[in-house]
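How a chain folds remains the central question behind the approach discussed here. The record that follows shows the chain in one-letter code together with its fold in token form:
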Amino acid sequence: MAQGMDDMDNNRVIITAALAGSATFKNQNPAVPYTPAEFADEAAKCFKAGARMVHIHARDEATGFATADVGKVRAVCDAIRQKTPEMIIQVTSSVGATAEERMAPIIAIKPELASLNTNTMNFSFVNRKTGQIVFDMVFTNTFTMLQDFGKAMEEMGVRPEMEIYDLGGLDNWVLIQQQGIFREPYNFNFVWGVAGGMKFRPEAFAALVHSLPAGSNFTSCGVGTEEFPAIMQSCLMGGHMRVGLEDNIRLPGGGMAKGSYELVECAVRIAEQLGREPASPTEARKILGTR
């Protein structure tokens, strides 16, 4: 079970919907939201389907590119809160050219949660069938950024969710946590299938779970077809589930998802088959330790 949960919460699963991300666009799936209204509509559908948290990368409405512009991020968050006030909002800290730009929306908006990346890595798009590199970059997350971002989040009352792309990222966080920056419960997300990160392997998943410190919750997400085995194993091992068009645009059978809400519906069905049910908003906040 997730270590941050008590007995009465063991069968509750928190489903997160990652609505847009930085790399999926309307030409890939028309349901990817760009405008605040589109984000709000999709979040409401996801909540109705069983999601209790949304992960947000705001978009520039004209270009569709992800943006750290505080006004645009605030507009998305406000639209979601107005339409679905019960929904937990998690804002990314990965968008922006500098550390200051990446943290600016979180400092200004103070969402309940924010992502916290744990290691510098290749972060690329590679054709899985041919090995051809489509896009190549280095995603910078130094120890200083891990320390400073995490400390700022905790001081503001924003719960960090540590993004784990490999076991080294978890080890990095453990080193920094010796300073006592982070408070329990600790919230982690295992990310599978990014070119530059780890490919989904059941034994690697188990190793990560068994390496977590006491007082931890974990969820999981996977890119493309790795989404479904990743969330299934997470649910099976007592963790939580993240789906959405940021990570994957298709249903298990290969058909195009009509929205992130259809992927949430898939997650709910998986959870039900494993004897678990979506947490209520109150239960989800209790598990995650949000305000």
In short: The mean pLDDT is 95. The first helix runs from residue 36 to 49.
